[in-house]
């Protein structure tokens, strides 16, 4: 019996193989029977480059006024002029002597009053920096438009100044303030002090980064402070004031205006055929794509690269400094028609690396966006636009800016998308 099976088994196996081969060779009307039984032939890999961007622009104003963690106060000639604004809108009217239970009106401010600023990344190797403090109270005009204070930096409004050697620029800086000026503010009808901070240098270029009241927890440095003794009696403790704005009546806006950065002279605007990322005020780029469904929905995309052509920017402060850019998914739905609002709703692309560029350089730059393209397959245009945002990783912290040619530029330098994909094959039984 065993001997007979040894002879029959190979015959049965050969017959089965023959049946399968015939089935694979047979042309069936269903067209799907063969792929189920036989290995599919390898699908060709397609690689295409096309103009997928249907709309692009860049919008300035990020972060919003007063939400900065730092104020980059700088005087960089024609490329950039910024000022730091700090409001002390609740100056005290009374104080209490030691061992007394009765408050006394403040009628005197002792010498030694000062403004204290917390610094990050101070330049300890450059030239000496002169820090100037101005009275920028404009009788409420600055509540409607916080930027009007740029006109208040005049010699008649200068109330304090100090020149600091580079090696003395530590994490805390004190600028003495005239006690008579402070007393006048306390006794005024508004009892408030609103100051503007400006930096200058004998070399013509100066910069200083001040921590705001929003950034104290992040950088472990104190916010701007006003300190003074309201009596000639040295046993009376110093009064410490922190930034506070009581106007306008909208609480959240008033909170933001406690301290903020204002750009007195920005770099020139980019040309109409250029999108810009970074700078002060911070700019974000918005690009909306139109990718054929045969690629996005009916293929396995294995690589997607946005190809932008960088335009050299000679007006960027520190044109040889490196600026890191990163891509984000714009998650705002079609109901958000304002691009500036849409750029507030961003989601990172996981562990995607930033792209480091130098403002003065030029040439083609690649941004890998395979994660973004794959994410788009999980939603629809009706729910989430096919949009990408570019922003600087140090937005509002450093002034560097990067320019790219837009879809309005000549064809050779317009944004392009290169996609590598494998078309999907539909298999199944007839």
Walkthrough of the structure:
This protein is of the alpha+beta class and 430 residues long. It has 3 domains: 2-37; 47-61 and 270-423, Jelly Rolls (Sandwich), CATH 2.60.120; 81-265, no CATH class. Helix content is 15%, strand content 36%. It has 9 helices and 25 strands. The strands form 6 sheets. Strands 1, 16, 18, 22, 24 and 25 form a 6-stranded antiparallel β-sheet that branches. Strands 2, 17, 19, 20, 21 and 23 form a 6-stranded antiparallel β-sheet that branches. The longest helix has 24 residues, at 2-25. The protein is elongated and about 90 Å long. The model is unreliable at 1-35 (pLDDT under 50).
Which outline best applies?
A: elongated
Largest sheet: 6 strands, antiparallel
Per DSSP E runs of 2 or more residues, the count of β-strands stands at 25
End-to-end gap? 42 Å
Q: Unreliable segments (pLDDT under 50, ≥5 consecutive)?
A: 1-35
Helix content: 10-25%
Which structural class fits the helix and strand makeup? alpha+beta
Q: DSSP strand (E) fraction?
A: 35-45%
Radius of gyration: 32 Å
Can I get a quick summary?
The chain has 430 residues and is α+β, with helices and mostly antiparallel strands. The protein has helices spanning 2-25, 33-37, 141-144, 179-186, 216-219, 251-256, 293-296, 339-342, 370-376; strands at 46-50, 53-62, 70-75, 81-88, 94-96, 103-105, 114-118, 129-135, 158-164, 172-176, 193-200, 206-211, 225-228, 239-241, 259-265, 274-278, 282-289, 299-311, 322-330, 346-348, 355-358, 363-368, 387-392, 401-405, 416-423. The chain is built from nine helices and 25 strands.
């Amino acid at each position: 019996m065993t001997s007979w099976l040894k002879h029959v088994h190979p015959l049965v196996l050969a017959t089965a193989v023959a049946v399968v081969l015939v089935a694979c060779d047979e042309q069936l009307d269903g067209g799907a029977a063969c792929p189920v039984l036989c290995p599919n032939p390898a699908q060709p890999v397609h690689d295409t480059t096309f103009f997928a961007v249907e709309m692009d622009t860049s919008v300035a104003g990020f972060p919003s006024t007063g939400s900065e963690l730092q104020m980059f106060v700088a005087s960089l000639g024609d490329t950039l002029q910024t000022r730091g604004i700090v409001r002390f809108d609740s100056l005290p009217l009374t104080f209490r002597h030691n061992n007394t239970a009765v408050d006394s009106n403040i009628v005197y401010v002792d010498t030694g009053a000062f403004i204290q600023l917390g610094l990050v990344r101070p330049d300890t190797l450059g030239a000496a920096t002169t820090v100037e403090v101005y009275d920028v109270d404009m009788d409420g005009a600055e509540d409607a438009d916080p930027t009007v204070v740029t006109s208040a930096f005049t010699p008649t409004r200068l109330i304090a100044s100090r020149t600091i050697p580079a090696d003395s620029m530590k994490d805390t800086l004190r600028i003495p303030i005239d006690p008579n000026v402070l007393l006048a503010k306390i006794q005024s009808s508004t009892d408030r002090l609103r100051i503007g901070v400006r930096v200058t240098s004998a070399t013509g270029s100066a910069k200083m980064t001040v921590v705001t009241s929003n950034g104290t927890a992040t950088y472990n440095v104190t916010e701007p402070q006003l300190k003074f003794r309201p009596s000639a009696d040295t046993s009376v403790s110093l009064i410490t004031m922190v930034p506070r704005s009581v106007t306008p009546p909208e609480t959240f806006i008033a909170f933001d205006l406690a301290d903020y950065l204002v750009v007195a002279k920005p770099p020139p605007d980019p040309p109409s055929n250029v999108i810009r990322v970074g700078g002060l005020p911070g700019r974000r780029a918005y690009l909306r794509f139109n990718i054929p469904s045969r690629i996005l929905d009916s293929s396995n995309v294995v690589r997607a690269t946005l190809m932008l052509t960088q335009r050299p920017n000679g007006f960027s402060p520190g044109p040889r400094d490196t600026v890191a850019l990163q891509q984000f998914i714009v998650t705002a739905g079609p109901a958000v028609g304002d691009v500036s609002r849409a750029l507030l709703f961003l989601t990172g692309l996981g562990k995607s690396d930033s792209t480091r560029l130098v403002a003065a350089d030029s040439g083609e730059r690649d941004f890998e966006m395979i994660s973004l393209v794959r994410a788009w397959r999980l939603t629809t245009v009706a729910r989430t636009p096919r949009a990408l945002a570019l922003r600087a990783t140090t937005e509002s912290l450093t002034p560097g800016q990067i320019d790219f040619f837009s879809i309005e530029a000549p064809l050779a330098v317009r944004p392009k998308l290169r996609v590598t994909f494998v078309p999907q094959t539909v298999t199944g039984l007839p």
